[in-house]
Design a protein that fits this description.
The protein has 2 domains: about 100 residues, Rossmann fold, CATH 3.40.50.170; about 90 residues, Formyl transferase, N-terminal domain (Rossmann fold, 3-Layer(aba) Sandwich). The protein contains 6 helices and 7 strands. The protein has a 7-stranded mixed beta sheet, with helices on one face. The longest helix has 24 residues.
Length: about 190
């Protein structure tokens, strides 16, 4: 049984989508949701989904405490879904090639520290890119730098603004992220 820990910093729409996708899965189970923000809506979503959640202070919670919690919950893989912080090296070493992230652009463009959410979409539009999309990748010690598992692109329309591009990118995230997680865990990628 693969047991997932989902990390999120915000509203948690991707977390909810992933949890619903795997709700009755025979070998993949979302087990716990972690957030680095006390007021993140994802914690309320966790409660509504009946999934355990835990808040931690990114600046003061030692990585070893998180690792102990992950071990206690028998977590096999970590899924980042709207989580905006760098994962500590100790956790990466504890879960080698077992941490996945989704980024709302076609990496390596528009990735790295500070490139998240609407900042990414604004940068794509301001740069007059012809396409954007999503990148699902493994996590290493640098922002948005791990091995790419999957990319899907869409055209950037001439009348796109941040809201319209963001909405279309979210649809790609909801469709593909759970599928790619499943394929990766079941060794189909």
């Amino acid at each position: 049984m693969y047991r997932l820990a989902l990390f999120a910093s915000g509203s948690g729409t991707n977390v909810q989508n992933i949890c619903e996708y795997f709700k009755n899965h025979s070998s993949i189970k979302p087990k716990i949701i972690y957030s680095d923000r006390k007021d993140a809506h994802v914690l309320e979503r966790a409660s509504n989904l009946g999934i355990q959640s835990e808040y931690f202070n990114y600046n003061s919670t030692p990585a070893s405490k998180l690792i102990n919690s992950l071990r206690a919950n028998k977590i096999s893989h970590i899924i980042l879904a709207g989580y905006l912080r760098l994962i500590p090296n100790k956790i990466i070493k504890e879960f080698p090639n077992k941490i996945l992230n989704i980024h709302p652009a076609l990496l390596p463009k528009f990735g790295g520290k500070g490139y998240y959410g609407d900042y990414v979409h604004k940068s794509v539009i301001d740069s007059k890119e012809k396409k954007s999309g999503i990148t699902i990748h493994l996590v290493n010690e640098k922002y948005d730098d791990g091995r790419i598992l999957f990319q899907k692109s869409i055209a950037v329309m001439s009348d796109d603004d941040v809201a319209s591009l963001s909405s279309r990118i979210h649809q790609l995230e909801y469709k593909y992220y759970p599928q790619i997680i499943e394929k990766y865990l079941l060794n189909q990628l």
